Target: Nuclear transport factor 2 family protein
Amino acid sequence: MKKFNSLIVCLFCLISSVLKAQEINVQKEIDKQVWKPFIEAFAEFDAEKFNALHTDDVLRATPWKLRVGREYKNGNLEGFAKNRDKGTKRAIEFWFEHRVASTDVAYEVGYYKITVNREGEEERNYYARFHIVLKKIDSNWKIAQDWDTGKINGVAVTEQDYLKGKPLAFN
Model:
């Protein structure tokens, strides 16, 4: 009986290890297909590239507004062009507090920092927490739901919150 129990424990550990390795591979795939081009498109004000990273029926929620699909994507086209034409420079970096994925759906929670440089103004940093749902569609990961806020329970997300994690980096 002890040998049987030991075998069950070993099988459980092996299956857990395989599943964890599979999840890490999925996260690397998401990083390559979504987050690296997301960071680039955001900085370059490339709304076409940015929109292509989202599902057609993406749900974008902020404390101020809920936008779905085409409304969200059209807003990106307009907003990105407007800021690019003004000479605005920006960058985004983020870290994940929690990531869980299956082979075709992922849920990720983390914090981001946006740095904005506008002509004639001091550089400004903005911090927020996000929740993202991703879906794999035709072998490509896409953002299906995107929620973020600058406040948690009425308390502003700060640089100290952001500095608790290690920003996503690409090799």
Summary: The chain has one domain: 2-162. Confidence is low (pLDDT under 50) at residues 9-21. The two ends are 48 Å apart (CA to CA).
